[in-house]
């Protein structure tokens, strides 16, 4: 476990078990047993599995909320959009276990409150990287840039190679799509 305090240890173990067994098949009792604590000790921090996932989502996606807040205060330029994509790529990498959970448990995500929150966040991110009056093709490019970043995280996890190199390759494709949507050749800023 990479993080230290009890709350974070519970989150980490729960995410491990959700990945191994699935969200629906994991009980609070199993989480407590893996942690070698009583169920009462677990309840002190979290009453339900959803409480654990919601707390993980809030903790691990805070950098994304901060990015959105920053992006909304910036000029709507291609340079800003590239910076948003770069920072988003780093935030996705930091929250990779949570996003793997979300990918592998899509039906559960639809039923949890955080599913709607995530959808709303993606719509705000899309607004930050596309032009308000963009042609439909350019809107699709921007949507595809976000999906490329998410899909790349999952598809490339099993591909041989340096994780940072894979992250940069996915980011390059996303930046290329947004640059084209912005009417620029890739690599050109302005």
Description:
By secondary structure, the protein is mainly alpha-helical. Helices cover 75% and strands 0% of the residues. It has eleven helices and no strands. The chain has helices at residues 6-21, 28-35, 39-45, 49-60, 62-72, 78-94, 96-104, 106-111, 113-129, 136-155, 163-181. Helix 1 (6-21) crosses helix 2. The longest helix is centred in the C-terminal third of the chain and has 20 residues, at 136-155. It is elongated and about 60 Å long. The chain starts with 5 loop residues before the first helix and ends in a 9-residue tail after the last helix.
What's the β-strand tally?
Answer: 0
Put simply, the count of helices is 11
Shape: elongated
- In terms of DSSP E residues, the strand content is under 5%
Largest sheet data: none
Helix-strand category: mainly alpha
Radius of gyration: 18 Å
Mean pLDDT, to the nearest integer, reads 87
Instruction: Report how far apart the termini are.
Output: 44 Å
Helix content: over 70%
Order of helices and strands: HHHHHHHHHHH
Low-confidence stretches: none
Short description:
By secondary structure, the chain is an all-alpha fold. It has helices at residues 6-21, 28-35, 39-45, 49-60, 62-72, 78-94, 96-104, 106-111, 113-129, 136-155, 163-181. It has eleven helices and no strands.
Give the topology.
Blueprint lengths: L5 H16 L6 H8 L3 H7 L3 H12 L1 H11 L5 H17 L1 H9 L1 H6 L1 H17 L6 H20 L7 H19 L9
Helix pairs in contact: 1-2, 1-4, 5-6, 5-9, 6-10, 6-11, 10-11
Key phrases:
190 residues; mainly alpha; 11 helices; 75% helix
